[in-house]
Amino acid sequence: MARGGKKAARRGLRRWLWRLAALAVLFGLAFAAWLWWDMRSWRPDPALYPEQGALVPEGGAPVRFETLKAIGARFVYLPLEAGSDAEGPGGFADRFAQARKAGLRVGVLLDFDPCLGADAQSGMFAQMVPRDPELLPPAIGLQRLADACDPKVSDAAVESELMTLINQIELHAGKPAILRLSPAFQDRHKTATALARDLWLARDRARPDYAGRPWLLWSANSARVTEASEEPVEWVVVQK
Fold first, then answer.
1. 3-state secondary structure of 234
2. What does the longest C-alpha to C-alpha distance in the chain come to?
3. 118-128 vs 155-173: helix axis angle to the nearest 10?
4. For 31-79, what is each residue's pLDDT tens digit?
5. Predicted confidence (pLDDT) per residue in 126-147, tens digit
6. Distance CA 66, CA 175 (A)
7. H or E segment and range at residue 18
8. Under a CB-based contact definition with an 8 Å cutoff, are residues 165 and 205 in contact?
9. Neighbours of 171 (CB within 10 A)
10. What dotted CATH number matches 44-238?
């Protein structure tokens, strides 16, 4: 009888452990679902970061810049990419005019392509972006690595072309560039240490620290869902 009672007790304990494990899994799933839903519209506290804005996606759905301003954006960065329909309806030039008409401060982001020379990229920037002191500092996106380049491009060549591009962009804009730096590019090239420029870092919800020094801009929500566009925007705040 005693042995049978012990077996029954062990079976009962196992059942309770399974139930607790199932509850823990359900709680984890519910928390993940809540976090995903909350993150869709989350942005940092405006009391801590009064200067907030957005990086809108390149091409795609129309952006209602007046709505973007109404929900708290004071500025907007527009991406300029090689090969895009910059002049057509909804293209870069159209969005540039709409954003300024809405009363937003406007900046331009050029994503650096390590497979292309600096001259071609800065030439496109100079052609599309006017010399205007009212524009925000130009931003250069450092996301792509040269691993897929054909022919191959060395790290030293990437860094040399990047420095040339920065100088050319700054000469056209008349102000220092901001470097939108990804963790992968920083790990490869140690750009935050090598170049004394303001940084734009990205990490959803948590303050980024991968550059090892202070930043100016923080992409705090990479896919904020708003009424301003059918596509999510990247929500950006300024460090005070």
1. strand
2. 92
3. 20
4. 333 344 446 899 999 999 999 999 999 876 799 999 999 999 999 999 9
5. 999 999 999 999 999 999 999 9
6. 27
7. helix 2-41
8. no
9. 10
10. 3.20.20.80
